[in-house]
Amino acid sequence: NASKFGSVLAVLINSNCVMNIDSMYVANNSSLDNAIIAIQSSLCEEINFKDVTFENNHGYESAIYITDMPNDVNFDGMQFLTEERLSSNYAPSIETEIEGGQGQLTIKNSTFYKVGGVDHDYSSIIIENSTFLETNSPVYFSLNDDQKASVSFNTFVNNRSETSSAGVYAHHGELNLLANVFVGNLSDGYANNLQVNPEYVFNDLGYNFLSSYNASNAGFKDTLLSDWGDILISGTSFSSELKVENVIEVVLTENEESKKTLLPLLDSIILDVIPADSCDELLEQNQLHLDQRGQLRGFNGLCDIGAVELSALELLDTDNDRFSNDVDLDDDGDG
Known about the structure:
Layout: E1 2-3, E2 9-12, E3 18-22, E4 25-27, E5 30-31, E6 35-40, E7 46-50, E8 53-55, E9 58-59, E10 62-69, E11 72-76, E12 79-81, E13 94-98, E14 105-108, E15 111-113, E16 116-122, E17 125-128, E18 131-133, E19 136-143, E20 148-152, E21 155-157, E22 160-161, E23 168-171, E24 174-178, E25 181-183, E26 186-187, E27 194-196, E28 201-206, E29 209-211, E30 238-240, E31 253-254, E32 260-261, H1 276-286
Parallel strand pairs: 1-5, 2-6, 3-7, 4-8, 5-9, 6-10, 7-11, 8-12, 10-13, 11-14, 12-15, 13-16, 14-17, 15-18, 16-19, 17-20, 18-21, 19-23, 20-24, 21-25, 22-26, 23-27, 24-28, 25-29, 29-30
Antiparallel strand pairs: 31-32
């Protein structure tokens, strides 16, 4: 489908409602003036997108554009895949403005591949259990000063940007960063992995990995706030000069539910990073017991970082006790 002066699907000025957009496949659509899906001036109590796949769409503004919305907007199990064009400077997959109420933006269990990323203004934002691969400007947000951003257990691999950070770019408010993986990202003139402006409050909650292989300043900078560069200060966050091919797969793997994710290598530095006691506490605090694929975290008693936890789907566990045979002293369960 194509739209020259508007969107392929437009939703305008609704109230007293809950909007659910579920289990939809959106492919080969284009809009020359707006977005593929545009939702404007909605007073719905919440808007929910679940298990929606976008493939090879060309939205002038973005793939999904939501503006003048005061209440919650939720994305779960989204896939934005492969916008085929000569330029890699894609429009955002998700562009949102939430203001005038108590609403926030939540994105979880989602994959962005060869598309534009997330561009969000004003309200709090949560991004968790999501994968950004070869994405243009993966995450950019500018929040009101009293609002917070939580970015937890995500994977950022081989992303690029000419206009922003190739990982996360934060403006105003407060950023909380936990258990993310940044590797192979490259920006032209901005931070490769993480950029936080001076007006922002930044909290490194720990267990974040930044590859220093191609980082602008070796991955870490010992200052809390910075115009440019990659900054982490927690003692449990870490860097390495390992290249992408030594850390994680770079080709998406499709699971039994047709969801595409990136798997860590079996000997990767991002496996079993969080100790058992901290793992249980963090998962309970953040309600992140499942990874992007719906697998329980804490296999082998420790937590991996990033969007995917390796499990019995990849590691042999003969007695199904959630400890792989190579670390289980009783791998056949006979005592």
